[in-house]
Amino acid sequence: MRTFIAAIVAIAISDVAFALNFVTLKPGDSRFGKCDTLITGIIEIDSADKLVEFVFERYETTGRRPLSYCLHSDGGSLIGAMQMADWLWHKAPSHMEVVDGDRCLSACVVVLASGRNNFLKRVWREVADGAVVGIHGFYMDTEPGVRDHSFSDAELVELGKAVSGRLVELMNTFQVHPILAQTMLTSAPDEWTFLTHENMWWLSPGRYCYEGFRRPLHCNRQPLKLAEDSLD
């Protein structure tokens, strides 16, 4: 049963246990490298709407939308993360990065997986050596072991199947190796898998471009099928 029960809410375990926040970074901030925006906090069910509002406000104010995001989040709503990632991929393709000392856990990895370069037509995801990227099994309940009585057992199963299928579909669109989604859907909520030098290639279809582990993770040479309605 666990295979089909995807989660809406992930584990929040840390100093970023607050609502998702979008921070405009100052040019030349050495800590965040090429990033012009920091996404930090817990992803919520309506985070995609807040992201769209932030992007258009930036565009109206400066004439430019964010092009490069640094992520520091312990995850949160899987559905919220999938909506964010889907919108970014199709409407506002952007570079995604986790810098040294920061982390991208659980549902945050879905957003990280959406990184792509619209001009070069390739995926664009970077993870620093000192960053932490991890996934675990998702769950439908408010928290592990706490039953959400707003859904019947049958409704939970059907919703879990729908969310699971959508996650697999998105990871395929993002050209992420299927093993990443499979691991997220078959692990227990307290069973973590951290991406290291040995398995970081799950995030990058261009793994054949090099031997061993290299960064950035965007050496894909195959053209992507890109939406024509991307926000430039």
How would you characterize this protein structure?
With 232 residues, the protein is an alpha/beta fold. It has one domain (2-209): 2-enoyl-CoA Hydratase, Chain A, domain 1 (Alpha-Beta Complex), CATH 3.90.226. It is 28% helix and 15% strand. It has helices at 47-62, 78-91, 108-112, 153-173, 178-186, and strands at residues 21-24, 37-40, 68-72, 95-98, 103-105, 116-117, 122-123, 125-127, 132-136, 192-194. It has a 5-stranded mixed beta sheet. Strands 5-9-10 form a 3-stranded mixed beta sheet. Strands 6-7 form a two-stranded antiparallel ribbon. The protein is globular and about 50 Å long. Mean pLDDT is 78; it is low at 1-14, 142-148 and 207-232.
Strand order of the largest sheet: 1-2-3-4-8
Helix content range: 25-40%
Count of extended strands: 10
How many domains? The number is 1
Name of the CATH class = Alpha Beta
N-to-C SSE string, H for helix and E for strand: EEHEHEEHEEEEHHE
Cα-atom Rg, whole angstroms? 17 Å
